[in-house]
Amino acid sequence: MSKQTLKLHSTTFTIHTLEVTAVIPPELFNQSMFVVAKTKDELSIVCPSEFAIDSLDAEHDWRALEVIGPLGFSLTGIMANISGVLAKANISIFAISTYDTDYVLVKQQRINDAMKALKKDGYQLLNDTKLA
Fold first, then answer.
1. What DSSP element (H or E) covers 8?
2. Residue 18's domain is classified under what CATH number?
3. pTM to 2 decimals?
4. Which parts of the chain fold into alpha helices (H)?
5. Counted domains in the chain
6. d(CA 103, CA 110)
7. Can you tell me where the transmembrane regions are (predicted)?
8. How do residues 13-32 score in pLDDT, each as one tens digit?
9. What does the DSSP 8-state code read for residue 60?
10. Domain interval for residue 54
11. What pLDDT band is residue 130 in, cutting at 50, 70 and 90?
């Protein structure tokens, strides 16, 4: 399988956890990028760090690497390969999948290490609109 191209987003994100019964702030839906995940046990929100949410706990300073898509549902191993490269480099991730593509969130202090590891493994990386 050929290596995908990843794009580093300039936005810094925060991952929040809230009470499962919490009301999602309506202003969240005006953000340029956000993810809401709810199960019977938890409510998680990923959003730009500048958007304040009253949450139970939060993990700050995440950067997003977008796997340039759209990716077909028949493709396999994309996240496994990327996360494997980063795991070998001892870099923790937070993975997000959408209908069209995947995102790998990496802590800001490790983003350069992550990009180096991915480049070394043959991935192409874009930084906003130019090659990183």
1. strand 5-18
2. 3.30.2130.10
3. 0.87
4. 78-88, 111-120
5. 1
6. 16
7. none
8. 999 999 999 999 999 999 99
9. E
10. 5-131
11. very low
Do 46 and 105 touch, CB atoms closer than 8 A? yes
Is-contact 63 91, C-beta < 8 A? Answer: no
> How does pLDDT run across 56-110, given as a tens digit for each residue?
999 999 999 999 875 565 565 678 899 999 999 999 999 999 888 889 999 999 9
Cα–Cα distance, 115 to 112 (Å, whole number): 5
Specify burial of residue 29 (Cβ count, 10 A radius: 0-12, 13-18, 19+): exposed
User: CB of 34 within 8 A of CB of 47?
Assistant: yes
How far is it, in rounded angstroms, from Cα 46 to Cα 16?
6
| CA torsion, ordered 56, 91, 5, 123, to nearest 10 deg | 180
